Amino acid sequence: MTIAAKVIFFDIGATLATVIPGDTPGSIKGFALLDWTLAMLDAALRSGARLGIISNTGDFPGSMITPLLDEAGIKGFFEPDLLIYSKDVGHTKDTPTIFRLAAARTGCADDEHACLFVGEDGAERQTAATAGLRSLAPPVFDFSEAS
Fold first, then answer.
1. InterPro entries given for it (predicted)?
2. Which one of 23, 83, 88, 136 has the largest count of C-beta atoms within 10 Å of its C-beta?
3. Domain containing 95 — which CATH number?
């Protein structure tokens, strides 16, 4: 069964990976993938959807985060234009703006079932819903159902 969503966005922290702190305060050394991450991303790709990220990255721009995704072995799952980092876009996941911006980048913003957000935080999933995205909590291995 294929997903109705055309694009699936994932959060990073506690959804795909945990942050490995760097040697200096406030720095990031890398990401440690969660046990389910590769299977979940494989399932998402098999659904036929395009994949992206929506993540609150604090003071870290995409130019710092994306190479860490590459080192973790998951950058290749995601379309470069669908990597939405709060530092780069000036919005966080506590308002619908970042989710609307992400949907607009897909070219599917007018289709209410086009985008799905997978994230561990219930408040962020609710904010995504306010912006018109469906959402699921991880881990997800069957993308045929979304609230």
1. HAD-like_sf, HAD_sf
2. 83
3. 3.40.50.1000
DSSP secondary structure letters along 76-119: GGS-GGGEEEHHHHT--TTSTHHHHHHHHHHT-TT-TTSEEEE-
Please answer whether residues 86 and 55 qualify as being in contact, where contact means their C-beta atoms are separated by less than 8 angstroms: yes
pLDDT tens sequence for the chain (147 residues): 344 689 999 999 999 999 999 999 989 999 999 999 999 999 999 999 999 999 999 999 999 999 999 999 999 999 999 999 999 999 999 999 999 999 999 998 788 779 999 999 999 999 999 999 999 999 999 887 655
Number of domains observed in the structure of the chain: 1
Main-chain phi, psi angles of 76, to 5 degrees = -65, -15
Q: Which one-letter amino acid corresponds to residue 65?
A: I
Residue 97 maps to a domain: yes
